[in-house]
Specification:
By secondary structure, the protein is α+β, with helices and mostly antiparallel strands. Helix content is 29%, strand content 31%.
Length: 421
């Protein structure tokens, strides 16, 4: 991952650091410096948010200099202090995605899971590259919020909050940026702790036998090999952590629980005499859309003061967080068993289900690539006059999740995902 210099109000910030978790609270600086040497980095910054400590690394040969500030460290610290509004309240946020426009025309992308930056979770690139990463990571599920530019709102991310990158940086009363020194990258000095103590003796022997140039070449190759091994091990550890986190079905409740909650809380079909266009219910929230008909704004406000009315006064909406029980984390069935059991039951009941294979998910970190040992299939069905709870009972199988329940035109429609081996 290449690090990029970003200028904001004449201050030099850096995006694209390589992040590693730290595990020795009393020796964070030493642990971070040793890790940096192992992966051939000579600059580092340490962030501590919630109960997490991580080090971000960069290389001066990429044009990065000591004292430049880490944008990732700034944004994560601001979110750790402020929290975010989701599930109906302002609270700490440990799982979030962010995509922000930069002054130079590039975009910066952040992905944080369990308060730790994910592989490639601090990235600067074109808008297309950033949005591609955002959509791929979003498909993993389990994110508390998605933060980003106002123009991303149309993508329909749940718990989306529009913000620009400057809103995360402290500002003085005159609007100028308030800089904190701890954001700055520090030089990693000294010799690596992993070099053998016998290197000095071996060097003298080699110099006497083969000359200074031969020894230098040998030493350089040995160091390069050790750096490659260390970087490989670091990447493999991160990808293993990503693999453990990438079980999206474990963050969502079973179909029967979601459908039951969506129906039970469907209590405003004709609020204030307005006509319902649609009611949608997801794992996170309920959304009502109405048109005025022969009613009035005052009658709607009398029943639902929080409803949002558009500028024309003809359409209104109401969004409310949906609280559900604990999600399930069952083991998956094989593809044939998972698909045929559901499809066969629905076919017998005359309920057609449209199923398409979802794009294969992969996480990439440099040359390392992790792919899950499961596949996902997107489905959509119309209840066709049947009771939604009856259909939910058929869908209530390992790895099957309803992502959205839609009531429109007197019909119930369900969209979801089948995860299988």
């Amino acid at each position: 991952m290449a690090s990029i210099v970003i200028t904001l109000d004449k201050h030099k910030f850096v995006g694209g650091l390589f992040w590693q978790s730290l595990s020795k609270p009393r020796e964070l600086n030493r642990e971070a410096a040793d890790l940096g040497r192992k992966i051939d980095s000579d600059l580092m910054v340490i962030r501590m948010d919630h109960t997490t400590a991580q080090a971000g690394f960069a290389q001066s040969r990429e044009g990065i200099r000591r004292g430049m500030y880490s944008l990732a460290a700034v944004v994560s610290k601001t979110l750790a202090i402020e929290g975010a509004f989701y599930d109906g309240e302002q609270q700490p946020v440990h799982n979030w995605l962010g995509a922000f426009k930069l002054p130079e025309g590039n975009w910066i992308y952040f992905a944080v899971r369990d308060a730790n930056f994910l592989p490639n979770g601090d990235f600067v690139g074109s808008k297309e590259e950033v949005l591609d990463r955002l959509h791929n990571d979003y498909a993993l599920g389990g994110w508390n919020v998605v933060l980003g530019e106002e123009e991303l709102k149309s993508f329909g991310f749940h718990n989306f909050q529009p913000r620009d990158i400057r809103s995360f940086i402290p500002q003085r009363a005159d609007g100028s940026l308030r800089i904190h020194k701890w954001w700055g990258l520090r030089q990693i000095g000294g010799r690596p702790s992993w070099l053998p103590m016998a290197a000095g003796v071996a060097a003298l022997a080699a110099l006497s036998l083969a000359g200074a140039w031969g020894w230098r070449l040998y030493q350089q190759k040995q160091q390069e090999r050790e750096r490659e091994i260390a970087m490989q091990q670091a990447r493999e550890r991160i990808l293993r952590e990503a693999s453990a986190a990438a079980r999206p079905w474990s963050k969502r409740v079973a179909p029967a629980m979601l459908v039951r909650a969506c129906q039970k809380q469907f209590v405003h079909p004709t609020a204030g005499g307005w006509l319902l266009d649609s009611y949608s219910c997801t794992q996170d929230q309920q959304t009502y859309l109405w048109r005025r008909g022969s009613s009035s704004i005052a009658m709607l406000r009398e029943q639902l003061p929080e409803a949002q009315v558009d500028a024309s006064g003809e359409h209104a909406s109401y969004v409310r967080a949906l609280k559900l029980g604990n999600p399930q984390n069952e083991e998956l069935q094989d593809q044939r068993q998972a698909m045929e059991q559901v499809l066969s039951r629905l076919q017998m009941m005359g309920v057609p289900m449209k199923v398409v294979a979802a794009p294969a998910l992969q996480l990439q970190n440099g040359e390392q690539q992790w792919q899950p040992n499961w596949r996902s299939y997107l489905f959509k069905l119309n209840a066709a006059g049947m009771e939604p709870q009856e259909i939910a009972g058929i869908l209530n199988r390992p790895g099957v999740r309803v992502d959205k329940v839609l009531y429109q035109g007197s019909e119930w429609i369900m969209e979801g995902t089948i995860y299988a081996k």
